[in-house]
Structure formats: C-alpha cells, structure tokens
Amino acid sequence: MTNAELSKLRAEVVPRGVPSTAPVFISKARNAVITDVEGRDYIDFAAGIGVMNVGHCHPRVVAVAKQQAELYSHTCFGLFGYESYLRLGERLNRHAPGSTPKRTFFMNSGAEAVENAVKIARYATGRKSIIAFEDAFHGRTFMTLSLTSQVSPYKVGFGPFAPEVYRIPYAYCYRCPLALQYPSCGVACAELLNNAFAKLVSPDDVAAVLIEPVQGEGGFIVPPPEYVGKIKKICDEHGILLIADEIQTGIGRTGKWFAMEHWGVEPDIMTTAKALGAGYPIAGITGRVDVMDAPHPSGLGSTFGGNPTACAAGVAVFDIIEEEGLLSRADVIGKRMIGRFKALQEKYPVIGDVRGIGAMAAMELVEDPETKKPAGNLAKAFRMRLYENGVVNVGAGTFHNVIRILVPLTIEDETLDRGLDIIESTFAEVMAADSAS
Fold it and tell me: Domains of the chain (ranges plus CATH)?
C-alpha cells in the first residue's frame, strides 16, 4: 500500500488524538535511515524520540531478540523469574550515579516508571506531596500528566488532575524566571524551592522533588552545573527524596550513562526507559536500597514489566554502548551539531538560543532576539519542510518553538553531515518563504 492509502486507512481506524507528524509509513529502518513503503529514505534525527541510541536493528539486538523469541515470550516475572531481568537490573545498579547500593525493578513505559517512583517515595517517607518543575514532561497517565507542565496538547480537556502536586520554575537560563544572568546570578533560581516551602507546601509534607536533569520535551533545557546539586542539598535538609527522570537523558544520550553524572549528584530514585530497550518497551526504576525496599512484598509489580525480550535487548544495549565507545561518540556528535547550529545562528537571528549536552542539541526560534517572543509557527513550518526534504525530526518546548535533534549514537559521519546539510538548506528555504510572505 502507498502512504496515501495507509493514511486513509489510519483515518478510518485510529482516533484523531493520536499524533501524526507526517503522512509517512515505514517499511524498514537500519541504523539512522528509515525507508517508507514507497521506497523513500529519511535520515532519522528523532531516534524514535530518543529511543534508538544504538540505531535501528543493531545486529546484536536483533540476534538476542530472535534467540529469546525461540525460548519463551512471557511468564510474568513475579511468577517465574529469568536471568535477563536480573542481569539488566545488575547493569543499571552498577552504572547508576553514586556509590550507594541500588535496587532496580522494571515496568513497561516511562510514565509507569515515574508513577512507581512516586509511589515508592510516598511509601518510604510517609509523605504525600510532590514538587515538579515548569516546562517538565513526565508522561500522559493520570499521575504523570499531573506532573507534566505543558498544557497544550497534553492536558487540555483531561482534568481534573491528581492533588498534592506543586510546581516551581526550572533553571531555564535563556528565559530566566528571575531575569538574571549566569554566572553572576549565583544560581539563585535554586532558592525557589525554599520559597515553595513558604508559599506552596510545607517541606514536612513533601515526599519528593521530581527533576529532569536536562528537560526534554521542555526544549532541551540544560541547567547551570551547580543547580541540581543545590536542589539536592535543599532536599536532604528536609528529608525529601530527589527523583531523577532520566527517561530521555539516560543510557548514554548526554555522553555519560546518566545526565546526573554531569552534576555529580546521586538521586535517591532514578527512572529510565526509551533507549533502555532499543525499541522494545521497558522502563526501569532504580534507587537506594533502603528506599526501594520500603514497600511491602507484592506492593510493586506488573504483568508485562521486564518482558524477557526487552530485558535481553537492554543487556545488549549496555554491551553495545560499552564496546563501541558510544559515550564518547555522543560528545563528538553533539559538538558537531552545536557547531553547525551556532554557525547557522550567526546568519539567522531568529535562532535565539543554541544549547545542548552530549548528543542532545536544540535551537530555540524566536520572532525577535530582543523580546524573545516564541516563533512557534516558524518552527512548525521548518519541521514540515525538513520532513519533505528527507529528515525526520520532532519539536519541543512549552511554546512549540524548539528544534530538537536526537540522532542514533551509531550514526555514520556521512549520514550525520548530510542531515545537517539538509537542516541548513531547509532553514534557508523556510526563511526565504517567511520573508516573501
């Protein structure tokens, strides 16, 4: 069937609320190239929204998936255990930030991981409230949608939301909530957490602060290096747990196993998903032994959590990243992308900010660099034209004005450069069209 025929079928079968970035249907994918049903190739600069860190159909992932499929597909880990679950948990415990002994268990998705992290934090502390951040994204379930900041399209019409969720500004330097400049600001935004204890909720009622060490959907917002440590210090002073949502940043994306390592901070609980399973649905909840062991037996669980094939793929992911040197590769990729974007920024002032860490890179588009008014329509036009020119990309940002790039860490240099060339030429096209209109 053609893309048009499949688009017609989709309209008949799938509700309109399910996202559709482009009217394209895939036939196959290899490493950083996706081929549609009509034989056209697209360079993948989205990586399944941060999932395909080791590329599409890595031979080692394919091999372990085939091997596992011939043995058994499901038992429910709570009924019959299997070694791959334990081995993947062992790897997460070993690589998680900090030296404190850890425990890990598995669910199916990032939202489920966050839900369970909140459950554990409440159980371990005996407290009920959670503090999250503006511009944060943590999922689309009832609890995680309550924790997610962005209203449209995620929250419109889906309320009311879960109680005892409070929100404070994040360290968004380009749009500083205190109108200050780093480093002369002294990272004063971290003190907004203490302000919340005076204005929003007593610290004695707060079970956890939930933080993305680099905000993903919010627009690849990288905090100053001191910020997360200051937040952790305030949490420790009040017996509050720090939950790190590493669902988009984890498993090598930022040039380290986990982004919290950049800040030298050990979270009490950490969530992972996305790249953990190389495309197979799995999510991890990892934390300090005393915290993770707090819930009573059978208080945690899932029918499908830690599926055998997904666990086997996860172990392969760790092997691939280690043996192929993908942590250092993430840094190389990131520097190349940031360099190209900064050069583009010099030509086009509508690129208000270029930022990133490791292989997370973004451009924030504005109508005017002085007012910083978000250019959401321009960003949308760019993304659509980029797809037409053969590069897959997804947007980000509370104001939908951020171009974020997530490439497989295994991408070949030639493919990366070709994709960046297309970004440059596409930006020129869109700016010319915008000037003409």
Answer: 3-54+325-436 (3.90.1150.10), 62-323 (3.40.640.10)
